[in-house]
Amino acid sequence: MLPVVEGAKNICLAAYDIGVLTFESVGFAGYAVRRHNLLFKQFFEVGNRSLLIVTVFGLFVGLILVLYGGDQLQRFNQEKSVGLTGLAVVWEFGPVFTAFILAGRIGSSYAAEIGTMQVYDEIDALKSMGVRPEAYLAAPRLLACCLLLPVLVTYADLTAMLGGAGMAWLSVHVSPSEFFRVFFQYLTFKQMWHSLVKCLVFGGIVAMTGCYHGFKTTGGAEGVGRSTTESVVHSLLAILVADYFMGRILLALD
Questions:
Q1: pTM score, two decimals?
Q2: The predicted structure's pLDDT at residue 11
Q3: Residue 210 and residue 111 in contact, taking contact as beta carbons nearer than 8 Å
Q4: CA–CA separation, 35 vs 149, rounded Å?
Q5: pLDDT tens-digit profile of 76-85?
Q6: For residues 102 and 185, what is the distance between their CA atoms, to the nearest angstrom?
């Protein structure tokens, strides 16, 4: 029982520290906007450099969902409803899987970059020059992830819809126009709003978890590798937990 209690204690302490870091980073958002060169650099890293993998992800998610969903619907002569698979993309697959991609590609790089600065005392050098690490390092990354994850998810949803429409036409002979007609018939503004809220929270989780593990790095190169791994693992778990509780809250508010 003691290891379980100790693990729960460590999780609570880490969550508290990440919350404090998030609060401080939000407070320095104005600094990040004024130092727009720092912000635009993170925009490029989060946005432009993620487009290719998000394109591939969205396309094949749409293909796979319609391939299997269309096959099951065809058994009940309901293949014309295959456009409903697009709602699963908007509700869950788009926000969650794109956040997973961001955690693996961006969150890990944040932990590695800031962790390397930490072990080489560059963070202390910033402090000695009167620069707050939360303002210079964490705030631009938080803003970039929170602002660009909704854009990436929208793009992933679009590519998934295009891939799904193509697969619907090839596998169950449902025209793209019928696919999109069913999809938009059942898509509501609340569903899009829920997806946007999830994106903002997931972006914050990815950015702050990566920065937190970077700031806590010790032990040289081995410590940097450990922090990078922990950042990805903890981000994925936090995204899943947050997705469940946010889903419960958002559904209760409907």
A1: 0.91
A2: 81
A3: yes
A4: 21
A5: 888 888 888 8
A6: 31
Residue 97's pLDDT is 93
| 3-state SS track over the chain | CHHHHHHHHHHHHHHHHHHHHHHHHHHCHHHHHHCHHHHHHHHHHHCHHHHHHHHHHHHHHHHHHHHHHHHHHHHCCCHHHHHHHHHHHHHHHHHHHHHHHHHHHHHHHHHHHHHHHHHCCHHHHHHHCCCCHHHHHHHHHHHHHHHHHHHHHHHHHHHHHHHHHHHHHHHCCCCHHHHHHHHHHHCCHHHHHHHHHHHHHHHHHHHHHHHHHHHCCCCHHHHHHHHHHHHHHHHHHHHHHHHHHHHHHHHHHC
pLDDT tens-digit map of 90-106: 989 999 999 999 999 99
User: Are the CB atoms for 145 and 138 separated by under 8 Å?
Assistant: no
